[in-house]
Write a structure and sequence with these properties.
The longest helix has 22 residues. The radius of gyration is 17 Å and the shape is globular. Helix 4 packs across helix 5 and helix 6 packs parallel to helix 8. The protein is mainly alpha-helical and 186 residues long.
Amino acid sequence: MKKLQFNAPAILGFFFVSLLSLVLGFLTSGASTTAAFSVYRASLLDPLTYVRFFGHIFGHANLTHFFSNMLLLLVIGPPLEKLYGSKTIAIGIMATALITGLLQFVFFPHTLLLGASGIVFMLIMLSSFSGAKTGQIPVTLILVALMYLGQEVYSIFFIRDNVANLIHIVGGICGIGMGLQLRGKA
């Protein structure tokens, strides 16, 4: 009998916390999602405000939102976690969560942000650095950045939906920053 392998603790932990958040959201008709798993302008005296700076990455509006983020997370994340280690990936996830949470809090006070898209885009950009040596910029990074950033900028100006394109861009920038820091270390 084969044993299951918990091959990417940071990514799988992220998945299961997100799944728990989704279930809690369904059970509470969204109250738990608003309270802890989304970020928006709230009083700095409210302790949950600080939880939301990180917790928003685990919240999802519905199953479609959850599946679209988790599928990419589960495909891209484990190889990166194997390459850079669980601690590095967890730090990157939490740093990206804090940066995107703070930006949302400060610049979009009347809009609620939730979901793992910023984290997914951080991982996409970080994956473009795979195998890069110090002093080199991979062509794959340039192509992914041009296509990805171009699509997000286009969406900001020409598509009206509930997608936080600026937060996607910020997540991508976080991934580029990580990639630059980690170049040649894996």
